[in-house]
Amino acid sequence: MRLGMKSGLLVGLCLVGLQVQVGAVQSYASEVTSEQQPQITENQSNYEQEKQEALTAGYTLEQFEAIMAIPDFASDSTAQVFSATTRAAATDQQKVVNMAQAQVGKPFGWGAVGPNAFDASGLVQYVFKNAVNMSVPAPTTSQERVSRDVSMNALQPGDLLFWGNKGNSTNVAIYIDNGQYIHSPGPGQTVKVGQIAWYRPDFAKRVLTDTPKKRPSIDGQQANERYVFRLYNGYEGNHHYTQDLGEATNLQNVGWNYEGVGWAAPTTGDTVYRLYNPNNGRHFYTLSASERDWLVTVGWKSEGVSWNSGGSVPVYRVYNPNATGSQDSHVYTTNAGEKNNLVRLGWRDEGTAWYAVRSLQ
Q1: Where are the beta strands (DSSP E) in 39-123?
Q2: Does the reported pTM lie above 0.90?
Q3: I want to staple 123 with a disulfide (CB 3.0 to 4.6 A). Which of 81, 118, 144, 336 is the partner?
Q4: In whole angstroms, how far apart are CA 37 and each of 26, 32, 267?
């Protein structure tokens, strides 16, 4: 009997303690809920409002949810802008790129077709109509049907990039070259320049007529120099530099974008070495034999001599501390403006890598 009384007392004390704890938790939860409720309610209200506007504009719920999930990257400030002189004699591709660039910074709007706001397909529709007087219907699924398939490894400026499945795409962008595109992503964002390496599309289409590619060539190369060709793989986000005409041509044939002659190297002078990282596909170039030897000890492969250093034109080396996978860890350029743009984006200026006879970019 005494044991039962003790047990009952213990149970009673436990229940009282539990009630006190539950009350405290409920009180705390009430305080937290009270503080967070306005923000939660506001966010939910904004989401529901965006959804209603999207459905009213003709989007499906699936498309709406996909658009709301598009990441918000800062616009890429390194995008090429054609000069006024170039615009005067621009090709259709350049006209489309120029018109798209002129819309950067304008806000997103569900079903908006410009000129002050755009959704993704509305931007495409506006740009092609005002740049080359071409009628491209909206939405994105209709834009798929008026264009033809093109490989992601053979993109040209003016091509359309799509996200989602064919026949049910959710976003579209205008390719502008060098692995970059312009699009109007979604609510709270503006028309901006993005990179394939940041946010990869699922397939591509071509609206404009194919234009002949600029091919690697040694035309104009002088007797005391060797051209160093510069190529870019927009899908992987990396550059390659070579003085081998055959290598440059082969890379272009498999989808790399030929960016022209980066600089002219002397036929004699200090040796610039080339190394390859088999783990991520990156190449690295250095004038330093000790740097070459150290990289070999950590797994890089020495590929011999790339070219020579000598002359009065500095070739700058900038480092990307945020590179992942095969993305550029370094870029080499004689263009001080390009170097400074990369530094503003967070790259590190590593000074002059070597010297060239002249710059041709």
Answers
A1: none
A2: no
A3: 118
A4: 15, 8, 71
